[in-house]
Amino acid sequence: MPKLKTHGFTHYTGAVKNLFGVMPGLSKARMHMRAPSQMEFAEFLLDLYGGLLNGFEKPKKFIHVMDAVVGMEGEGPGPSGKPKNIGAVIVGDDAVALDYVAVNLVGLKIKKVFTLTEGFRRGYGVKSPDDIQMRGESLEDMRINDFLPPKSVVRGGIIWPLTSPTIKNLFVEKPVPRVEICTLCYNCLKVCPAEAIAKADDAKVPRYNYQKCIRCFCCMETCPEAAIN
Ligand code: SF4
Ligand code: SF4
Question: Which atom of ligand 2 is nearest to the CA of 185?
């Protein structure tokens, strides 16, 4: 049961990304480290989806029920995003097709959602948007025209010179905690897969080591105060 939300790292999170939830506990953080770029992470999510569909004795089917009655726009998927009335429930047995419909519904760019571009290429379900069979309301009647995308820039793989932490810190957005809001709960520190966050010592916010940060934005998603820009 995914929600329709924006996501600072994957641009959008829905049915395919929701399956990340089957990964137990800390193995989620390990997978973020093993697949640090947006394209690698999308490929991993699709590997996982394919494993769930075909990795058992008999192929399995899943029913994905997306709650898009109230979705999230802007700097999602955590509390920094804003609730957005969409008024839809989207149901399907093909996670890629369902995500395509959801992304279209709110007007996000398909080419920025690598689980879609790669998902159709893999063809676990339909191989092209033209093959999606829709029932119920028409997409045109339901479309949301003022949905805000996340600000972070979508890049495929991390390519040189962005592999250099110093260059990366100059050109790639980074999570920054805000002094006026942070309560020093350290949820961000606990969840960071790269161990890039340390206790504040004398400062008023945790110390971020951007040389180590892989820009997964898990800290932003976890922060209960929406204190991370
Ligand atoms: S500091 Fe935040 S964005 Fe960077 S690796 Fe840690 S959790 Fe991910
Ligand atoms: S999770 Fe948010 S409020 Fe808690 S320490 Fe980190 S930035 Fe501060």
Answer: 4
The residues near 40 (Cβ < 8 Å, ≥ 6 apart) are: 34, 157
What is the number of the ligand closest to the CA of 205?
Answer: 2
Q: What is the pTM of this model?
A: 0.80
Q: Residue 154 to residues 12, 32, 53, 97, 195: CA-CA distances in angstroms?
A: 11, 16, 28, 21, 23
pLDDT digits (tens, 9 = 90+) for 119-174: 999 999 999 999 999 999 999 999 999 999 998 776 665 555 556 677 777 777 88
Segments making up each domain of the chain, as ranges? 3-142, 165-222
Q: Which CATH code for domain 165-222?
A: 3.30.70
CB of 101 closer than 6 angstroms to any ligand 1 atom = no
Structure confidence by residue, pLDDT tens digits, 40-80: 999 999 999 999 999 999 999 999 999 999 999 999 988 88
